[in-house]
Amino acid sequence: MPLNMNNVNVNEVNKERNWFWRKIGFWFVPVRAETLGPEEWAKVRKMSRTGKRRTRRLLFALLWVPVLACEIAVSLRVVRLDPWAGLMSTAWLTVLLGLWVRSLRIGFAQVSLEDRAVMEYGAEFDALKEKQRGEVFQRAVRDGLFGRVKVDEHEVERRLQAQAAAYRLLGPALVVFITGYWGVCLFGPFEATRSALAVTAVVVTWLAALVLAAPTMIRMWTQPDEPGETAAVAE
Amino acid sequence: MSMHNRIAVLRAEKKLSRATLASSVGVNPQTIGFLERGDYTPSLELAFKIAEHFGLPVEAVFSPRPFRTLSEQVYKLHKREA
What we know:
The structure holds 2 protein chains of 2 kinds.
Chain A: H1 10-15, H2 19-28, H3 38-48, H4 54-81, H5 83-109, H6 113-121, H7 130-146, H8 153-187, H9 194-222, H10 229-234
Chain B: E1 4-5, H1 7-14, H2 18-25, H3 29-36, H4 44-54, H5 58-61, E2 62-63, H6 70-81
Antiparallel strand pairs in B: 1-2
């Protein structure tokens, strides 16, 4: 007999499921979301709110440091064995890290399941039928995967603020890094390769100068003419 | 300078959800939440859109100074009329 999802008794359906499905399996089978029970829905909703809490986001931000350290350690180990393998592993890990950062960025702009329910069906999430809850959940997962989120003015402003803060940190960090790099190049025990190292130090220094001067240069290029008082009155 | 607003009161008065207001002014629902909590100062465009949605002048919804409570204002108006 075909199962009508609008009238399905989810509690009965859930009773028939084994422990694995109830605790873990449902996370990996979003196509069956319309048959989730109240227990699973509570977990899904709790999970969807993870990125909305600042304490959880702080934990993720702290996790970023050891993840980056691991990536650098793995890349350095591999590159010593074989430069090409080092390039491949660095590229692969950077892509993975990029995807992780992308998913975090999407998470900021994502609308919660509760708000989606109101926007899509005009009703509270709890008041929706099981099939509709499943559809809301699936659309949220799909939009998250494909990055289909609305970047409104608030989101744009937060991103710009974050970029400005990152740039403010980058300035002194680059100065410290370059000073250290020059110090190692000039005073380190590398007599044979000192001149080659000094060449890389020059390149790194000019790259840093390019990066730090970029915002001012972009502004020089894009800022329109300043209208004088006479011109403003005449217009 | 932080901007004060009456969005939460107006929304409650009209029985509007965050998501509904957000849809009609073209932002995410969380942005309405940040506005109500005073964590975000809207652009002029968004401020006018919100005021227009409630059918009020922009200065009735947003102000650089804290708003007096509606009950206080109504009481004052009655007193003036009497």
